[in-house]
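User: I'll paste a sequence; please echo it back and then give the predicted structure.

Assistant: Echoing your sequence first, then the prediction.
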Amino acid sequence: MNEHSTSLGVALFSDGRRVRNPSYFPLKSNEFLPFHQGDVYDAAFMIPCISPRPLHALSLDELESGLREMGEPAYRAKQIMEWSYHRDKRVASWSGMTNLPAALRTKLEAQHPIRLPEVVQVSGSRDTTQKFLLKLQDGELIETVLIPASPALYGEESDRRTLCVSSQVGCAYGCKFCASGLDGWKRHLTPDEIVSQVLLAEKVSGERINNLVFMGMGEPMANYANFIKAITILNAPWGVGLGARKMTVSTSGLVPRIRELADHPLQIRLAISLHGASDAVRSQIMPVNQKYPVAELMDACSYYCERKKQMITFEYILIEGVNDDPSEARLLAELARGIRAKINLIPYNTVEGLPWNRPSEAVQEEFLSILKNRGIAATIRREKGHDIDAACGQLRRRVSTASLLPGSL
């Protein structure tokens, strides 16, 4: 059985079906995710069902429909969304929505609670990268990172702010260089848990988020239904109001989901966590490549570019002695040229407990020059947060480990 399997038991689906002793449920794309005993799963998407439904997981249409069923005027929904998402309001409780009748607030609080995570720790400073450690309602920890823009990276003004958002607690995909999956996969984040990362980051930092990258903990494409619901709320004029082209989703290479997202109307940008240009190298550090090898992944990327009329980005972490050879750079250039992709080189962030290191700056520059000499748009992401456990999952893992020590909180 897969190493991420958890306890066995009876799976109760939301439509009443029961499955005895499962460990993984097949998704539409033949992927598998862990089952936790006692969870209730949505029959269509195999994701945990939550009742009552949190406010920040609702669309305007859903809220209007619910209000009509309660005999309330539908215009109340727009009032509620304004209290929830307008930057001058964003109340943390129903009691703050003062233009709603008190009796209605009481009813809605029971049906649609406001579940903002607790900010456990903030690392970094306001003028540099800040990492937020958040505690969810069930006590699980996630991370989100606020990154000041770099003109070298974006080629634009440096007062923009990018938020790196998590999509799961842990990760099941087992990339050998990543801290997120060291303690296994726990569960998907719900739409409100994704959206609330943006709300809390803006509140705590006092900064307006200009860009979102789904490059934090977890594989967003494995949490596809909740991810789509979250970006719909984040993009909507009644929601956060962030343009779709200001959002980028990064995937380790779930080919069916890439094709599905290509057909979605929102013009969200795509980044591929590639980290190896050949199957031999990529399979060594990314198990997902054994299911979706490089050629199949490139076909899906070409389809995405064709459907969206966008360039995509290859994220490529440089790991000493693993994927930093000049021959790999030449292969990478061929892949990028084939679909007109940009390449973002990222020197490896050291993770405690893992054997990998970053290459020397000379090796990094040689790798970059090979790409540029072949006409490829490429940059090196100079580190922003190496001293604050900025690599995905490091801060969460350190705090989780410390909490198990005698005398800790």
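Confidence is low (pLDDT under 50) at residues 1-49, 152-157, 401-409. Residues 55-111 form a domain with the DNA polymerase; domain 1 fold (CATH 1.10.150.530).
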